[in-house]
Amino acid sequence: MKKDNYEYKVCKVIENKEVAKGIFKLSIEGKFRGEPGQFYMLRAWEKEPILWRPISIHNITSNSIEFLYQLVGEGTKLLSNLIQGQEVKVMGPLGNGFDLEEIKGKVAVVSGGIGVAPMRYLVDNIKDSEVHIFAGFRDEVYGLEEISELDLSVKVSTEDGSVGHKGYVTELFNPKDYDLVLCCGPEVMMYRVINMCKEVGTKIYVSEEKKMACGVGACLGCTCKTVSGNKRTCKDGPVFNGLDLEF
């Protein structure tokens, strides 16, 4: 669902903890809004790095917003150093999320690695559908604690076999069994899931993960290829019809 009326706020950190190696959950105080699949731009520094960091919505409560993010560079390293009471700048909600009205029937929610981050808020908002969760990780499992508390089918794969199925998440499900697949994760994994859906004619929506500069569609720095030309991931996405994407 498209939302152009984003807001800029300076808010205080409630909690910022490491939930797995290199994976952090940041809770920020305030009144927030957003659709599943949308994201916020975050900044907790004055000068370098120049760019804000785009982080998908992990959850929204009555008085807070949560972000699940991976430590990958200087920006996320600075975010990981935030402690309770410190201030962080947030801008959002941004982008197009999952269209909840399109989510019907038997649904597979498929994630890989940090792609699990937007799925918490998504499954909370899916109504009147049978939802099955498939989550893949290299080794350590994270981001499923709250999802596991819901009355949903959850299957996990790890590449090292330490938890659940040993192998890849794409080995856990057959898209032919579903009316719709919702996916987020590494590009190579999403490409595989999209091809699996194409082969059997199952609808699929994916949330693209791209480096973003402005977050509002002005700089064209996060374009992706589609059957109808280049699209801006931050503005036209990050959620796209998977069958429209070209890898």
UniProtKB/TrEMBL annotation:
Pathway: Pyrimidine metabolism; UMP biosynthesis via de novo pathway; orotate from (S)-dihydroorotate (NAD(+) route): step 1/1. Binds 1 FAD per subunit. Binds 1 [2Fe-2S] cluster per subunit. One of its GO terms (biological process) is 'de novo' UMP biosynthetic process. Keywords: 2Fe-2S, Electron transport, FAD, Flavoprotein, Iron, Iron-sulfur, Metal-binding, Pyrimidine biosynthesis, Transport. Its cofactor is FAD; [2Fe-2S] cluster. Residues 6-100 form the FAD-binding FR-type domain. FAD binds at R53, P54, I55, S56, L68, Y69, Q70, G75, T76. [2Fe-2S] cluster binds at C214, C219, C222, C234. The keyword Cell inner membrane does not apply. The keyword DNA repair does not apply. It comes from the Bacteria. InterPro entries: Cyt_c3_hydrogenase_gsu, Dihydroorotate_DH_ele_sf, Dihydroorotate_DH_Fe-S-bd, Dihydroorotate_DHASE_ETsu, FAD-bd_FR_type, FNR_nucleotide-bd, PyrK_electron_transfer, Riboflavin_synthase-like_b-brl. CDD domains: DHOD_e_trans. GO terms for molecular function: 2 iron, 2 sulfur cluster binding; electron transfer activity; flavin adenine dinucleotide binding; metal ion binding; oxidoreductase activity. Responsible for channeling the electrons from the oxidation of dihydroorotate from the FMN redox center in the PyrD type B subunit to the ultimate electron acceptor NAD(+). Belongs to the PyrK family. Heterotetramer of 2 PyrK and 2 PyrD type B subunits. This is Dihydroorotate dehydrogenase B (NAD(+)), electron transfer subunit.
